[in-house]
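Supplementary Note 3. Input sequence used for the single-chain structure prediction.
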Amino acid sequence: MRKTKAALVATIFAVALTSCGDAGGGGSRDWVRSVGSSTVFPFAKTVAESLARSNSGIKSPIIESTGTGGGIQLFCQGVGPDTPDVANASRRMKPGEFAGCQSNGVTEIMEMQVGLDGIAFGSANGGIMMDLTPAIVYEAIAANPYGEEQTNETWSDIDPSLPDVPILVYGPPSTSGTRDALKELILEVGCKTDPAMEALEDSDKEAYSRTCTELRSDGAYVDQGEQDNLIVQKIENNPRAIGIFGYSYLEENANKVQGLPVNGVAPTYENITSFAYPGARPMFIYVKKAHLAAIPGLKEYLLEWTRNWDKDGALARIGLVPSPDEVKAQSLRVATEYTTLDGSELE
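The predicted structure, written as discrete structure tokens, is reproduced below.
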């Protein structure tokens, strides 16, 4: 019944777009609209520009940086020309988000992993340098590390071997996929170095999440919004500050900032490809299958990703790390055969 309803909605939508729509939000649209991750944004913009250059009859897609969570929320509002066609994500869609899409009639969703990125920790060239670990990061920026009062004011308060300078970290907001990946790949790993936190996860998941992932709000951690370039600017102007952003911004601004190693592993292209770097993570785009036939250029936009994501492609030149070959092959099938995501895969 649900699939029948979705097919009906898609048909009505297609008819609406091919008829004479008005200029309002409910009228027709002849360009691709993509929303979501600030980390994926520069890659999506590059693909959009490449598509426009190689296809004179296709309008350049509009790419909006809203954060992963905000983008998926917009994407899942429904099917139709007043909703986005694509959601960019620096983490995988959550089961609850998928369920929200389904309840709003977005029942056929295509998932493409378009490459890899890393959660990079950086400082100004010539600025503060240290070998971080998940535990050090957690103890520096958690609101209540291991359930205790946050008393660390300097890095040396955590470990005497670290610099005796105030903790100041610029990072992503709660709506960002980078923040979600930071929690999963770094903060929770650091938190679980205490065996009591492992036990807490089993006994009280809400208390565990609060203890292991909530960040301090006393000024030591500064939420810089969805603009990774602003984080780069902040640390460039303060040699004692550390920034958290996507690896691509580290690569793009190598003349201004330096990467800090985590567990002795530097945030480099090779280390992200091999997943040796602890902050390595996949990048995704989500696409409404119902929009494929209705939005001019959407099918071509998906194919344009596949033409640019190899090691010698345009995306690698601006910092995207190619996915493993088998992952690229699966994403290519999605872009050409339009296979959809099974929600059970997200569990």
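The radius of gyration is 21 Å. Residues 14-26 have pLDDT under 50 and may be disordered.
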